[in-house]
Request: fold
Amino acid sequence: MTKQKPVIVVNFKAYKETIGDNALHLAKACEKVSVETGVDIRIAVPATDLHEISESISIPVYSEHVDEYPLGKHTGAILPEMIKSAGAHGTILNHSEHKVPLKKLEETIQRSKALGLTLVVCAENVDEEREILRFKYKPEFIAIEPPELIGGDISVSTAHPEVITGGVKELKDGVKLLVGAGIKTKADVETALRLGADGVLIASGIDLAKDPVKALKDIIPE
Reply:
C-alpha cells in the first residue's frame, strides 16, 4: 500500500451530467474532496463553463482543449488567451478524442506556456510520449491513455502495466506522468503510483457516478 498522494485530474468531457449546472455541482464535489483529503485534485471542464466554475471554486480549473491559432480571424476557435481570460489555470491537449498533429501540438504548448498555463498533454503510448518529450517546450504533465481502454471496465493498470513503467522510464526535465483509461478503483490508482506514476487522469468513473464525492474518496489511497 502506498502513502503517496496522487494528482487526480478529472476530465468532465461533454456528458449531460457535466455541463451547465451539473458541471458546477461536480466541480464543487471535487473541491470538497480535495479540501477534506488534502489530495491535489484538478478538473478540466467544457469551455462554456470555465468562467463560472473558476470563479466558484478554489482548486485548479483547466480547459479540455485549446486551438493553436493566434488571436485574430478564427471563428469558433478556443484560444489559450481565451481560457486564461476565463480563469483557467491550464488545459488538456491531444486527448485521443481531440488529437492534435505533433507540429501543431508543439506550437500550442509553446503559446500556452508563455501565458503561464499548465499543460496536461495526452499520449496514446510510450512512443508518442517520447515524441512529445523531444519538444523544446515541454508540458508539466504527460498523460498516457491507451485509447482502446478509455471508458471501459479494464484499467491501464491491469491491462498494460508495462505502459506505465515504460512511460516512467522516458520522463525527463521534471515532467510528471499521469495515467488514464479505465481507472475506476483504489487498486487501479495504487498500482499506477507503485509503478512510478504521479497520478491519474479520470473521467467517466467520476463524471457518471451517482455520488461523485464518494466515488472520488473511494479511489484515493489510504
About this structure: The first strand starts at residue 7 and ends at 11. The mean pLDDT is 92.
